[in-house]
Every structure is written in structure tokens, then in C-alpha cells.
Amino acid sequence: MSKEFTALQKQGTWSLVPPPANRNILGSRWTFRTKLLLDGTLERYKARLVAQGFNQEFGIDYKDTFSPVVKMPVIRILLTIALHRGWSVFQLDVSNAFLHGRLQEKVYMKQPQGFIDERPDHICKLHKTIYGLKQAPRE
User: Fold this and answer.
1) What positions does the domain Reverse transcriptase Ty1/copia-type occupy (predicted)?
2) Distance between CA 4 and CA 8 in Å, rounded?
3) In 3-state terms, what secondary structure has residue 70?
């Protein structure tokens, strides 16, 4: 949890502000996964902070959720072309990809459990997307 919280802080994901009047304030929760190696042994434990985006309201907390995604037939066609032309194929992964998107809307979230600041009455004003927000895949 500390590692995830530190990553969020380094990215400038939010700033603490007093709660505004008449605004939707989302909750947050921690999710946990056990990552295993191919042989089934433990690699590491992973924690992720997730916004409770199911409480978001259209037109207030988000406007659009569409996210362009490549379908499997398109990937197969590209791999077939690369194979026939002798091209090299590379793969990459962007670590914490959802945390890089900039929010257009004003979205507020309660401070994460276990990491309450010395100002417990303040909330997080999100500057970047986090997992669970409806607009996160688009951004």
C-alpha cells in the first residue's frame, strides 16, 4: 500500500482541499492481488487504490467514457503482415498507465484509508485519473 501511495504522490495525482459545498465526493478503497510466477510461487503482493466511480454523475463528474480499443482480428492481421514481411514485433507495458491521464472535470475523493493526512477534514481533488473512474480509460 505504501508503494502505491508513494507512486500516486510522485505523479501529483491529487491535492488536499477543504470539501466544496454541493459536490459529489467519491469514496475510495484498496484492492489487493497476489502475483505469482509461472511456476506458481509467490512473486509479490500488490495493492491498488481504486476510486468508487459507480457514484459518479454524468455531466458533473464525467462527460465521456468512450475509449478506442483494438479488437483481436486487427491484431491478428497486423501480426500476419509483420510475419510475411519479416518485420520485428515488439511489446511494451506502461506502468501505472491509468495514473498518467489528466482529468478535465473536477472530481473529488475521500482520503485513502490508512493514509489520512494531518488534515482529516480535507479531501482529495483529483488532477489525474486513477483506477475506477469512468473516464480513466479514455484519458
Assistant:
1) 13-138
2) 6
3) coil
How far is it, in rounded angstroms, from Cα 130 to Cα 123?
15
Tens-binned pLDDT, residue by residue, of the chain (139 aa)? 998 899 889 889 999 999 998 889 999 999 999 999 999 999 999 999 999 998 888 888 888 887 778 899 999 999 999 999 999 999 887 777 777 889 989 999 999 999 998 888 999 999 999 998 989 888 8
Contact 111, 124 (CB under 8 A): yes
- For the chain, the distance separating the N- and C-terminal CA atoms, rounded to the nearest angstrom, is 24
Name the grid cell of 60: 458533473
CA angle 134, 26, 126 (to 5 degrees): 75
What are the grid coordinates assigned to 135, written together?
473516464
Identify whether the C-beta of residue 129 lies closer than 8 Å to the C-beta of residue 139: yes
